[in-house]
Design a protein that fits this description.
This protein is about 45% helix and about 15% strand. By secondary structure, the protein is α/β, with parallel strands linked by helices.
């Protein structure tokens, strides 16, 4: 990180202002070369300066330049931010001048990567920044800012510290038995501490699953025979004509997708092809995809008709849904009843066309996923699949330690497993990491962040 990087930090296009960010050991020196206010080099930290960006005595733009000296900056390097008038040409011209005068164009996420490598943030806080940028609901924003502030990191560090204390005691007990004032780490004491660790880890795993549900949304497949009103239901929920609706069977041949927010919960809706026997090659491919989505979806909305008897296809779908999260939607509730619904479960009666009982459907979804409780919880949330996978590995390893203790394994054998758990906790927050992991993680950021 000996070089100085620069990038446009605001969205490209026409706007009120644009910001070009510079970070590195020569940030102030390079900006001074193209800035009309010559006091920049001697200016105190965290000050704003008025002037012009100059290229061979030509004024390029009237700007405000923010100066922040290391180490009290986001990257812990000198940072200069040029606040220019918004516009594609002018912004690109300023960036070009910075590159000509010694800057290198920043890679995606490189400012945040430098913040991590310089100890300003850890990996979970960096992942929280990604979530904050991508937050689609108020709840996901709240969870992301809690992660950025280090709430999850603090808990992981606390668990790591507790394990370090156990390991230190074991080390002393094994190698320095003459130190009688050191607590003896017996099997019973380790068991109690490991039970407590497992409870805490499993709580974080569950809350992280709940958090990911609020963050990413519920993958919701709308399934049923042709002409039961699947596309009408999608259009009703979305509030626009997203899917084509006709009386012709097989109109929907491929999936139609849309997302809506219901009381802070994202529903990722997928309208599928009607499930039936067909000789049409294109429609049959759509039917195969519909059946596959039953297995992939977090929630299935099975649509049946109030004014029709259950068919063989309906019974086959109901059989495939056993053991899955599903709601049976009996549509066309405004028409005369024909369906035999006595054995149907998780039912809600609606009319997508007449907008009857749609709120009941939304409430049933919230109840099925216990979303009202999740929304009110103060989640200690780890956002990435990487962190969640490591937590599950830790939970499994801790369980194996407990089994080993019950079988009477020696403390030096137990110590090896405990050190492995301690290292895994370190991987979550980035105390130990690979270069490949860091490059992959920060590549998800936009350029300039």
């Amino acid at each position: 990180m000996e070089d100085t990087i620069a990038a446009i930090s605001t969205a490209q296009g026409i706007g009120a202002i644009s910001i070009i960010r510079v970070s590195g050991p020569k940030a102030i020196e390079i900006v001074s070369k193209i800035f009309s206010n010559h006091n920049l080099k001697v200016a105190p930290s965290h000050t704003i300066h008025y002037g012009y960006i100059i290229d061979n005595n030509e004024k390029i733009d009237e700007v405000l330049v923010s100066l922040m000296r290391a180490p009290k900056t986001f990257t812990r390097e000198d940072i200069v931010e040029i606040n220019a008038h918004g516009g594609i040409n002018t912004t690109n011209k300023i960036l070009e001048l910075l590159l000509v005068n010694g800057c290198r164009l920043a890679e995606p996420g490189e400012f945040t990567k430098r913040a991590f490598l310089n100890g300003r943030i850890d990996l979970t806080e960096a992942e929280g920044i990604i979530d904050l940028i991508n937050a689609k609901t108020e709840k996901s924003r709240q969870m992301a800012i809690a992660q950025v502030r280090g709430k999850a990191s603090s808990l992981i560090k606390e668990l790591r510290s507790e394990l370090a204390a156990i390991l230190a005691n074991i080390e002393v007990n094994l190698n320095y038995p003459e130190y009688e004032d050191i607590e003896e780490m017996t099997t019973e004491k380790i068991q109690l501490k490991m039970h407590d660790l497992v409870l805490k880890i499993n709580k974080i795993i569950q809350e992280s699953k709940n958090g990911q549900l609020l963050k990413n949304g519920i993958k919701t497949a709308i399934i049923g025979r042709p002409n039961v009103g699947k596309s009408s239901l999608l259009n009703n929920l979305v509030g626009e004509e997203k899917a084509i609706v006709t009386e012709i069977q097989g109109t929907t041949r491929d999936t139609v997708e849309a997302s809506i927010v219901v009381d802070n919960i994202i529903l990722n809706l997928i309208d599928t092809a009607g499930i039936r026997q067909t000789d049409d090659l294109v429609e049959s491919l759509g039917v195969e995809r519909s059946l596959k989505l039953i297995d992939e979806a977090d929630l299935v909305l099975l649509v049946l008709n109030y004014n029709e008897k259950l068919t063989e296809e309906d019974h086959l779908i109901l059989e495939k849904l056993q053991g899955k999260n599903y709601i049976t939607i009996i549509n066309k509730y405004d028409l005369p009843k024909v369906i035999d619904d006595k054995k149907l479960q998780n039912t809600v009666y609606i009319s997508a066309k007449e907008n009857i009982n749609i709120d009941q459907l939304k409430n049933k979804i919230k109840k099925l996923f216990n979303l009202e409780k999740i929304e009110t919880e103060d989640l200690t949330y780890l956002s990435s699949a990487r962190s969640l996978a490591i937590l599950k590995e830790i939970s499994k390893s801790a369980g194996e330690v407990l089994k080993a203790l019950e079988l009477g394994y020696s403390l030096d054998m137990i110590e090896i497993d405990l050190k492995n758990i301690w290292n895994l906790l370190g991987e979550i927050i980035g105390e130990n990491y690979s270069d490949e992991l860091i490059d992959e993680l920060f590549s998800r950021f936009c350029v300039g962040k």
